[in-house]
């Protein structure tokens, strides 16, 4: 495969979410969760949630995702985040990626809020 090939240009939301999980895993994100929420809401098909160990790692994870997803041709919408680097959100329309500090993740409790969503085993994705 050509390094510059846009492998996510026509990808499904599931393929984009799985690609994001692989990028986050390679950059040592903590406690990665992949939730299939398409039957619960219209805002997205998948949430990817992970934890960064420091403000620097949170920024690094978001920057790496933004770069890799763009390079692969994903339908990037926008990056949002707090100035304190406690959290970052990448909105890819059908896939929303949440990168939190431990404290912010405990505060927002997205896994609890979306407890009835289908959780996909990320170990099967990351190998």
Features:
alpha+beta, Beta Polymerase, domain 2, 5 helices
Describe this structure as you would to a colleague:
The chain has a 6-stranded mixed β-sheet with strand order 3-4-5-2-1-6. The chain has 127 residues and is α+β, with helices and mostly antiparallel strands. The chain has helices spanning 13-26, 55-71, 102-108, 110-113, 123-126; strands at residues 30-36, 46-51, 78-81, 87-91, 95-100, 118-120. It has one domain (13-120): Beta Polymerase, domain 2, CATH 3.30.460. The longest helix has 17 residues, at 55-71. It is globular and about 35 Å long.
Proportion of β residues?
Answer: 15-25%
Molecular shape:
globular
**CATH fold topology:** Beta Polymerase, domain 2
Number of helices: 5
Q: How many structural domains?
A: 1
């Amino acid at each position: 495969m050509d390094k510059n090939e846009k492998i996510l240009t026509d990808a499904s939301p599931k393929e984009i979410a799985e690609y994001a999980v692989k990028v986050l895993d390679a950059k040592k994100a903590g406690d990665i969760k992949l939730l299939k929420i398409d039957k619960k809401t219209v805002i997205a098909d998948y949430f990817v949630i992970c934890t960064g160990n420091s403000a620097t790692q949170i920024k690094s994870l978001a920057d790496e995702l933004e770069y890799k997803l763009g390079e692969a041709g994903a339908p990037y919408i926008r990056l949002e985040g707090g100035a304190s680097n406690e959290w970052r959100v990448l909105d890819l329309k059908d896939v929303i990626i949440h990168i939190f500090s431990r404290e912010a993740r405990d505060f927002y409790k997205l896994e609890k809020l979306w407890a009835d969503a289908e959780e996909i085993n990320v170990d099967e994705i990351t190998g």
